[in-house]
Amino acid sequence: MLEVHDLSKSFGGVQALADVSFEVAEGEIVGLIGPNGAGKTTCFNLINGLLPPTAGGIRLNGREVAALPPYARARLGLARTFQNIQLFGGMTVLENVLTGYHLRQQVGSFLALLPLPRVKRAQAANRRGALELLDLVGLAGREAEASEALAYGDQRRLEIARALAQQPRLLLMDEPAAGLNPRETEELMGLMEKLLSLGITLLVIEHDMTLVMGLCHRIVVLDHGQVIAAGLPRDIRLDPRVIEAYLGREDD
Fold first, then answer.
1. In angstroms, rounded to a whole number, what is the distance separating the alpha carbons of residues 243 and 11?
2. Mapping DSSP to helix (H, G, I), strand (E, B) and coil, where does residue 20 land?
3. Beta-carbon neighbour count of residue 218 at 10 Å?
4. How far apart are CA 47 and CA 53, in angstroms?
5. 172, 220 in Cβ contact below 8 A?
6. Using one digit for the tens of pLDDT, what is the confidence trace for 162-181?
7. pTM for the whole thing?
8. CATH class held by domain 1-77+168-252
9. Which backbone phi and psi does 29 adopt, to 5 degrees?
């Protein structure tokens, strides 16, 4: 589903990523891990088009997308959540999710202003879909609440629901368990398994090793902008290069 090949990114004289290559197959949960500053979020920003690569390419379902803007990649089935929650604070919970439906809106911007039957049908369908997504993520009955008034963990759930409104086939999740307590993390893991059962492939940046080792089918490890290991969780856990990247050498 996703092929990242020889991906590099420089910021002036700083090499953030260097020749990064990995794949994500349909129906997988793949973890992208590494120490702080390893280049994980930069990699996400390149994949979904927030940053242009210095070199290399990105294929989504066999199509090269490195030159496409973020909205075009979203239309091809790519969505993401952010490390720092990016909700619309002046909107309700329901309104936040409804913004995700604009990508698939079948009614043009001008027609949406008119009280036509087809417009009302489309709006009603979007509302039903948004309510179903809120139920899926555990926010049923809270659609009228202000998004900024939600607890931190619930804001995480809301951001996932809004991303799901884009009807993605591949969802990038940037530290979804950040700031969550153990119970909330366990609930998040259950939700991620449910998304997989619904046909959504996941690429996840995460520092919570309980989540990574317990949920991911494969893991890619970055350090100083390079892939230092990739494989099954049991192999990554024992890889000396990964242990050194996280803990340092004894003489350090």
1. 28
2. strand
3. 18
4. 9
5. no
6. 999 999 999 999 999 998 99
7. 0.89
8. alpha beta
9. -115, 115
pLDDT for 12: 87
Distance CA 143, CA 93 (A): 5
CA angle 172, 176, 177 (to 5 degrees): 150
Residue with tokens 């492939």: 201
Q: Which of 235, 228, 189 is nearest to 208 (CA)?
A: 189
21 within 8 A of 4, measured Cβ to Cβ = yes
3-state class (DSSP) for residue 246: helix
Ranges of each domain in the chain: 1-77+168-252, 91-167
Q: Are 5 and 59 in contact (CB under 8 A)?
A: yes
User: Is-contact 64 57, C-beta < 8 A?
Assistant: yes
For tokens 């050498």, what's the residue?
249
CB count in 10 Å sphere of residue 15? 16
Q: Nearest CA to 33 among 207, 150, 156?
A: 207
